[in-house]
Fold this sequence. Notes:
- The protein is an alpha/beta fold.
- The protein folds into two domains: about 5-155 and about 160-185 and about 215-320, Rossmann fold; about 340-410, DNA Binding (I), subunit A.
- Helix content is about 30%, strand content about 15%.
- It has helices at about 15-20, 65-75, 75-85, 90-110, 125-135, 190-195, 245-255, 270-280, 290-305, 315, 335, 345-350, 390-400, 405-410, and strands spanning about 5-10, 25-30, 40, 50-55, 110-120, 140-150, 165-170, 225, 260-265, 280-285, 320, 370, 385-390.
- The strands form three sheets. It has a nine-stranded mixed β-sheet, sandwiched between helices. Strands 3-4 form a two-stranded antiparallel ribbon.
- Strand 9, helix 8 and strand 10 form a beta-alpha-beta unit.
- Helix 2 crosses helix 4 (about 90-110).
- The chain starts with 6 loop residues before the first strand and ends in an 8-residue tail after the last helix.
Amino acid sequence: xxxxxxxxxxxxxxxxxxxxxxxxxxxxxxxxxxxxxxxxxxxxxxxxxxxxxxxxxxxxxxxxxxxxxxxxxxxxxxxxxxxxxxxxxxxxxxxxxxxxxxxxxxxxxxxxxxxxxxxxxxxxxxxxxxxxxxxxxxxxxxxxxxxxxxxxxxxxxxxxxxxxxxxxxxxxxxxxxxxxxxxxxxxxxxxxxxxxxxxxxxxxxxxxxxxxxxxxxxxxxxxxxxxxxxxxxxxxxxxxxxxxxxxxxxxxxxxxxxxxxxxxxxxxxxxxxxxxxxxxxxxxxxxxxxxxxxxxxxxxxxxxxxxxxxxxxxxxxxxxxxxxxxxxxxxxxxxxxxxxxxxxxxxxxxxxxxxxxxxxxxxxxxxxxxxxxxxxxxxxxxxxxxxxxxxxxxxxxxxxxxxxxxxxxxxxxxxxxxxx
Length: 420
């Protein structure tokens, strides 16, 4: 592991995730933006004052190279994300691309026995489920956890109140941590009354004698939660998307052990970090808002046993703004010899949105070839401005021709019908 315990990064989480060593995190919980098309700001006078962010996704929030990165690693996922623009709107496509490049890294850094919990709502939850199935595998889907709570309705409301969130739980593989005895729930009064009595299954057409026995630790929990209320009282910090501490404690207890490493890449007011500290886990938090530093330290200060004097949030929490450097990889000879032109392929693929410049048809990433608009034989360079992607057929047709000659041939062949 190349990051110390109790490190909080104030930076774009994609940069940080790319700097974390592979196979080193036990549990990831993320409560990312939901594509709600809203701006959030903490109230003046609240502990989280100064925290603000937008959950509105535009072209400014995406990098062209993400197209190529996603298409190269997972062509089917790229096509699904492209379809989201037609089904929903362009903001959903941009949002899913931003999430996908980050989830690629989260999968990489999880241990083979690790788990990831993705917190979402009805806005993009069903799209994110497809992304997660594609990246982590449908067979590694463990549960769709529904956290139910109550809230006031709006005046004149003409639909049911939206009062639940969804948390998608995936494991990396066939072995994962699940501490059910740590999260059992109290039995209902009816179940308690049956304890010690004889079972009688007349409704099934037969009788079978046996004594009802209840687990002393409680009943096996379901995949829905209604016993954890929304934020109340002193726990509120004013952070716009804060979640209850009890919710994070439950997730961390279920899917990690003492000493394990917990990562929250959208940590906000650090609820997951605080819960991890309380439960004797190691933790790493990431948030792009500078306000996260102060609120994290304040919340940790509240739970520290000051008499023990073993941990001081104001001196022992490590604040970093630069990405970590991976220590588990070295540059290969192949990477060293990679032609400069090919380093731009992801970005160019994005700018062309997967379409060949010649025939204007969509092609998978691997079927596209780097081409120079002005050939090398005519002093063409490897600068981005002189590079384009062509399908194999168009690349063969162009050869060493100039761009204008190439387009003219495509028009003669009826491949191009435009007049430009």
